[in-house]
Specification:
It is a single chain. The protein has about 60 residues and is mainly alpha-helical. The two termini are about 30 Å apart. Helix content is about 85%, strand content about 0%.
Length: about 60
Amino acid sequence: MINKKLETLDHVLINLQRIVNTNEPIQTYKKGIEKGQDIIEDIRSMIEREPTSPQERNSSIR
């Protein structure tokens, strides 16, 4: 699932490059940025929900 989100984020970034190269309206660019930020937040939530291993718990104590 995370890989799918990362792939979608990659497509968003490619689209943002296209938007800049074709001088589309700034609002179009802002929508793309918001979409990318939403995907990043989704990925962070997925990672936080994953169980942590004993090694991860020990390394966070240091």
